[in-house]
Amino acid sequence: MWMDHRAAEQAARITDTGHGVLTRVGGVMSPEMQPPKLLWLKENLKESCWNKAAHFLDLPDFLSWKATGCLTRSLCTLVCKWTYCPPDGWDASFWTMIGLEDLLENNFSKIGSVTCPPGSPLGDGLTQEAAADLGLEPTTAVGASLIDAHAGGLGVIGADVKGFHLPCEDQPITSRMAMICGTSSCHMAISQQPLFVPGVWGPYLSAMVPNLWLNEGGQSATGRLIDHMVKGHTAYTQLQEQIQQRSDDNIYSYLNNHLSLMANSHSAVDLLGSSLHVWPDFHGNRSPLADPTLKGMVVGLSFSQTVDDLALLYLATVQALALGTFHILEAMKEAGHDIRTLFLCGGLSKNALFVQIHANATGLPVVLPDQTEAVLVGAAVLGACASQDYSTIQVIKESIVTFAKPSATTVHGSDYQTDFCKALYPLLKLLKPVSKALDPWSCM
Description:
The chain is an alpha/beta fold. The protein has 2 domains: 8-124, ATPase, nucleotide binding domain (Nucleotidyltransferase, domain 5), CATH 3.30.420.40; 146-444, ATPase, nucleotide binding domain (Nucleotidyltransferase, domain 5, 2-Layer Sandwich), CATH 3.30.420.40. It has helices at 8-17, 34-44, 46-50, 59-68, 75-81, 92-97, 105-108, 128-134, 148-156, 223-231, 236-244, 251-263, 307-334, 352-362, 374-386, 393-404, 415-441, and strands at residues 73-74, 115-116, 176-181, 185-191, 201-205, 213-219, 277-279, 297-299, 341-345, 366-369, 408-411. The chain has a 7-stranded mixed beta sheet, sandwiched between helices. It has a two-stranded parallel ribbon with strand order 1-2. The protein has a two-stranded antiparallel sheet with strand order 7-8. β3 and β4 form a beta hairpin. α9 crosses α15 (374-386), α10 (223-231) runs antiparallel to α13 (307-334) and α14 crosses α17 (415-441). The chain is globular, with a radius of gyration of 23 Å. GO terms for molecular function: D-ribulokinase activity. Belongs to the FGGY kinase family. Keywords: Kinase, Transferase.
């Protein structure tokens, strides 16, 4: 899976080749992409896996194959994670240079010799077996897939926000950035022309929105990091006991309320984080530093280990993640993106503190569409397109907006909250060389 970084050494060797395909992944090959994972399999499981495999598929394409028996690959998966580049296709020199020349056999049949755009109908639809498993009719149309985050981006980025007086209103859709926030976060920015952002994946044509270029920033651990910090704290058991007395609360809504009580107001919560700071790259930095070797750290700890201290660590973690988003935005804007509004979806978009601090840290309004399951909306668009009742994905998106008129909740940061977060930002960046320096010490 994507979060498995065991191929970090292979990814570093691929980066060292300096091959031209690296320009489309921000200049650095990530261990979360498929070429280093394939190389790891060849080098470590050659007899038991590599030599026996007939096909290597990304999860979305594997699910499509299970549903239809069709091996046609989605351009979304191949372009974004496998270095495929239409209209030229696979670059044989790249695979040869990294030691995977055997994948060239039979027109790259093991990794995909036939491709199609997302939403294209696959095969004859659902097979008899898949239809029985799913309780659906055989031959039901199945659309070529999007990666889950890209489906979320498609489902959220076109939300109707007329009347909200947002800076993206009456502006091109390229003024919006979709953030899909869950275990990790993906920051999806689109443009009319290809923009090359150091440390950020892309540009990829039509990988999310047809006929637009995609740059994909991200954080390798967001929800995973928050859970790690909260559930690993000494006071977590005490926190659970307190929550059990209030059955209407989950962990994070309780912590959000607890922080408000500590600050005596919602608006002053940010200021509680003035003396505790987190460098959030516990699982490396996906972008814009593109360094999987970075480690996390916490600065400002004391001996105290109360629920209050747990809440402050939670706050500092969320603030660090939000400033990481600001760092990604900075890199994208320097490369030519004009992002004016954030559109959030995913599990963390339901966390009010997470959303508010992102508005504070970035200085941008945040939109939460009423259709909260944006990944499912994006997947539904693919199915509708595959049904051939609509001509293109874009027509479907316009039909959804016209028919459903989805409304939205908007969140803004106050000037002083944004100023406070901006004051934290230089301090956070000072921690980066310390995080990097930890790596050689770990080998002693």
